[in-house]
Design goal:
With about 575 residues, the protein is of the alpha/beta class. Helices cover about 30% and strands about 25% of the residues. It has 17 helices and 26 strands. The termini are far apart.
Length: about 575
């Protein structure tokens, strides 16, 4: 293929920074080699910072080796699945890399899971061990007898707190009425004791990176119920390197990453944990996002990189005391997990002086496939252009045929970061992996320059009176109103139109707004058929821990109020 033909097929390549190549050779090794290599290059550099306590790369690697030895001593074999049900804390980082060093497979598990969800994931994955928090132990204890799990390993937030916080923590937990009682025994063991009793001798399991599974990452996926996404070591290594090459001005050994995105989410795992370790950066661990505390952390710890979800940036720019804090250390922010409103992007950049870009990905792609340029040409409202070695196109959802530029269709992607398939679900795999292309289930378009724009997920599209309506377009208009802090639009059943648009709105502190005023605002900015017919004002919107608004939850609540949910 000539250069001209390539440019015609991949118009985005002409917008690559000169520092970024369209293709790279990627190492084929265990993901945990990132940590081994960082410890060799930056042995005394802080790898993690947690509420005042730091671990150097030498210390972190030593703990990971101990954990790997502990797993092997417990009989966890190569390829066995180990569930990690933890917030962002040192134990999570240690258990993640230790599991991979031992040749086992990481199964990231949401700490918010109720017993039914947890039981499904542990059974489906066949996990033989789980690492969890003492505060979550009772939930785990209830489920474990119904699953293949043989070993429960329990850690605590206080395990890595500095003095005197480690002494005060149990008092705070007791005051808050939280339960930390754990029934230790042969099958329930202390995380710290396991490390203490295990040698720190190196364990570096060599893997067939392109074929051996590193992570079984659960997702609602592009269709159906929660499924395990098979991500190989190569998938994860490639995507970590791609993201690093894209942010080419980052300085190895110097960057400080604000880790507010949960690591159990694939976005946080790749662009925070793995990327920071690849570059010898410091992970500033945030167990739970709380805007006021995060502002204090930025002011005191001076992070340079802050990947996040739009709801995080929204919470920070609207915090009543945001002007009190120095946010100028932040250079790079990559927003994912949900659409980034333009107003939020502009306001956050003006407050920090850094760059906030929107990217795109999905669990099935490890997850990142697209991003805007950080320092060169970018287009507001766009998810940007495909990463190196990544191809994308817009296809007809029914036929799979490629559509002309500018037309709206389903986004399909291909690249070395794309999953091997769904765990034990060949039929589901066949639906989304077709001829080397991953069908994302997202409706999008590509402009003449090769920049892509997500309209919405196919399943979220509203069909009212025969018109296709994309919630994102409505939400952008709602966000532009000076009194609106958060908004979500979705379709609710309507006897006449099939569906009608309803807006769920959270107002800024102290603001007062009536539905008729908001409707007038929308009518001036949207075609009549897109204007919400219903408005509900709320104190908050239901979200995942990664900050994505749960439209499904809103629909369920709508149904419980007398309207059948879709």
């Amino acid at each position: 293929m000539t250069q001209t033909q390539t440019q015609n097929r991949k118009p985005w390549l002409s917008h690559y920074p000169k520092e970024v190549e369209p293709s790279y050779e990627y190492p084929k090794h265990n993901v945990a080699e990132f940590l081994v290599q960082a410890a060799a290059k930056f042995p005394k550099h802080p790898a993690v910072h947690f509420m005042g306590k730091e671990l150097t790369y030498t210390e972190l690697l030593g703990c990971a080796y101990k954990f790997a030895n502990a797993l092997q001593r417990l009989g966890v074999a190569r390829g066995d699945r180990v569930a990690l049900m933890l917030p962002n804390c040192p134990s999570m980082v240690i258990a993640y890399y230790g599991t991979l060093l031992a040749g086992a497979v990481v199964v990231m598990t949401n700490p918010l899971y109720v017993p039914r969800e947890l039981e499904h994931q542990l059974k489906d994955s066949g996990a033989v061990a789980i690492v969890t928090l003492d505060l979550l132990y009772r939930r785990v204890e209830e489920v474990v007898p119904k699953t293949p799990v043989r070993h429960t390993i329990v850690t605590s937030i206080k395990d890595y707190l500095p003095f005197p916080k480690n002494l005060l923590y149990p008092l705070k937990v007791k005051k808050d009425g939280l339960k930390r009682d754990v029934s230790y025994g042969a099958n329930v063991q202390s995380f710290l004791k396991l490390l203490h009793d295990s040698p720190g001798t190196p364990v570096r399991t060599e893997v067939d990176a392109e074929n051996e599974m590193a992570m079984l990452q659960y997702t609602g996926g592009t269709t159906g119920i929660s499924k395990g996404v098979i991500l190989t070591h190569y998938n994860a290594v490639v995507n970590t390197v791609q993201a690093s090459k894209w942010a080419y001005r980052k300085v190895p050994g110097k960057e400080r990453y604000l880790a507010a995105l949960p690591f159990f989410h694939v976005f946080g795992m790749t662009v925070l944990m793995n990327q920071s370790v690849l570059l010898g950066g410091c992970l500033i661990l945030v167990p739970r996002f709380e805007a006021g505390q995060v502002l204090k952390t930025i002011d005191k710890q001076h992070p340079t990189v802050f990947p996040g979800a739009p709801t995080m940036y929204i919470a920070l720019i609207n915090h009543p005391e945001v002007r009190k804090y120095d946010l100028s250390s932040i250079n790079i922010c990559i927003s994912g997990a949900a659409p980034l409103p333009l107003e939020v992007q502009e306001r956050f950049e003006s407050m920090t002086g850094g760059r906030l870009i929107e990217g795109y990905g999905l669990t099935e792609a490890s997850p990142v496939t697209h991003a805007n340029n950080i320092w060169e040409t970018r287009k507001l409202g766009s998810i940007g252009i495909p990463f190196p070695d990544t191809a994308a196109r817009i296809v007809d959802p029914a036929t799979g045929e490629e559509l002309p530029r500018g037309e709206i269709g389903e986004l399909a992607v291909s690249g070395p970061q794309v999953m091997r398939g769904y765990w034990n679900r060949p039929e589901e795999t066949a639906k989304v992996l077709q001829d080397g292309w991953l069908r994302t289930g997202d409706m999008a378009r590509m402009d003449e320059d090769g920049f892509f724009y997500i309209m919405d997920r196919m399943k979220d599209m509203i069909i009212a009176g025969g018109y296709n309506i994309f919630p994102r377009e409505i939400e952008e208009v709602l966000f532009e109103h000076p009194d609106v802090e958060e908004a979500a639009a979705l379709g609710v059943p309507d006897k006449y139109r099939g569906e009608t648009v309803k807006a769920f709105v959270v107002l800024k502190a102290g603001a007062s707004l009536e539905a008729r005023e908001l409707e007038k605002w929308c009518r001036e900015r949207l075609a009549a058929y897109k204007v919400p017919h219903m408005y509900e004002f709320r104190d908050s919107l239901p979200k995942t821990m990664a900050g994505k608004v749960l439209r499904r939850k809103l629909l369920e609540e709508e149904g419980s109020q007398g309207r059948p949910a879709k």
